[in-house]
Structure formats: structure tokens, C-alpha cells
Design a protein that fits this description.
binds copper (II) ion; Immunoglobulin-like; alpha+beta; five-stranded mixed β-sheet; elongated; about 300 residues
Amino acid sequence: MTARVRTRPRSRAMAWVCAMAAALLVHLLPLIARAGSVSGEPAVPPLAGGNGWSLPPDVSVDGWRIDSLLRSTMFFVVVMFSIMVIWMVLACVKHGRHHKAEYDHGDGKKQITFALGLSAAIFFVVDGNLFVNSTWDTHVAFWDFARAESQPNRVRVQINARQWAWDVRYAGPDGTFNTEDDIVTLNDLRIPVDAPVIIQLTSTDVLHSIYLPHLRAKIDAVPGTVNRLWFQAQKTGRFEIACAQHCGMAHYKMAGVLTVMPADEFAAWAARASANSVQAYDPKDKDAHWGWPWRTEK
Ligand SMILES: [Cu+2]
């Protein structure tokens, strides 16, 4: 004879709550561990970081547009998640052994209308918010290259991504890329503060993606194609450059440093670096001349 095991509604609700708490803890543990390591010896001390709980601080002029969309989307997600959790807990508590089961296929006119209406409301409010604001933001900021190019203090940079490094090139005083006065650096992107920076980038091997988390900027580097992005930093400091596409064995090593400098310091550095480039220029070293004529298409 098999003993009948009865589960009390409260213990079932408790089981649900415990399962959800465990799932939450699994997601939080890495963050807790990371936050704890802040007091230890940091791997790269001078780089600006975050608090480990949220996005790193935004130091760009237009980064707030990305943060605002992330925040509003997170708000909707938290509200819907909370409603669903409360609904499930109430269902577990209410539908105990004293509750008479009701069988329903859920295909009645009312249910279908309710499901479609709720789905449409979520789609138009949550996805609509993302669609409208991201379209507007790309139009007035992120894809407005004409505005960035028209600024007299704008800085043009070419980047060649490869396994596993970032080659960075500036045109030098002649303003033309791939000439002997070009400044070429490795994993070292320096820019002036309060100036639009336009980056054109490509890759010589596989897909990479340049990611500047403090600038809320990211774009793929695609072999055979020149992609572009622009941003403007409004704070000086040293920030992380990461590759956001898994690009092979040493993907994790494909890191660089973005240094945002006062305009006069940047100009002095660029002058020194360009003078060094002229001295070191070797016309026979074809591999070093990977730059391309600047593309100015709208
Ligand atoms: Cu990469």
C-alpha cells in the first residue's frame, strides 16, 4: 500500500519562495564576489571602474540616452516580473486541497481577447518605448556623423582590429591617413575631452567588436567593411577598451586603454608621437601601412 503524501498549500508556497530565492542568489553571487574583490589589489589600478553592481559611470555626452532606455526597460521588466511572482505565489496559496479544481482550455473568446490585449499592451508600451526612443537617439545623436564631422575640434581615428589587438591610427598634421606622419599606437587610444571623436574601423581576420563601456559605445569590426561610430567624452581619465565579440583563443587579452586628456595635453602628445612616426617611417614596411582614405559618405 502506497502512503499518500499530501503537500500543504503553505509549504508549497514556501518551496516556491525558496526556489526563487535560490535562483536570485545564484545570479547575485558573482556580483557579491566581484564587489568583495574591490578592497583587494586591483589588476590595473589606474583604470576607472564601476561599483560592480551596475554599469560603469558614463563619461560621454550622449550615453544618458542608452542608460535611460536601459532604466525604463528594466522598470517594465521588474514590474511585470513582480506581478507574475505575486500571481504565482497567490495561486499556490489559494489553490490548496480545499479548492475545487476548475478545468478550462483557455480558448474562450474572453480569454483570447484578454491574452491578445495584454500582449499588445506589453508590445506597444515596452517595445514601442525602445523602438521610438532608439530611432530618435540614432537620428539626433549616434548616427549624426555630419554634426560630428562639422566640429572644428573633431578627431578622426582609424582602428584595425586583429587577433588579438587594436591598431590605432591618427592622420597626423597633414590630415591624410596612410602617410609618414601618421600616429600609430597599439591598444592605446588617446582622445581630447569635449571633442567629437569619429572612429572608422575594420578587421583583418575575424569579427571583433570595439566596446567602450564608459562611453556607452560599441560597434563590430568586420573584415572587408569599414564601420564607424562617434562619441564625445566629457571627463578625463583612463578607461577600458574591450572586445565584445568572441574572436578566438586569446579574445580575453584583446584589451586596450582609452585615455581622455585635456585638449592641450592631447595636442602635445600628438605632436610628439607624429614627430617620432616621421623618424621611424619605413616605406618598405607595407604591413604597417594599413590605413585607408577617410570615408566621408553621409
Ligand atoms: Cu576580438
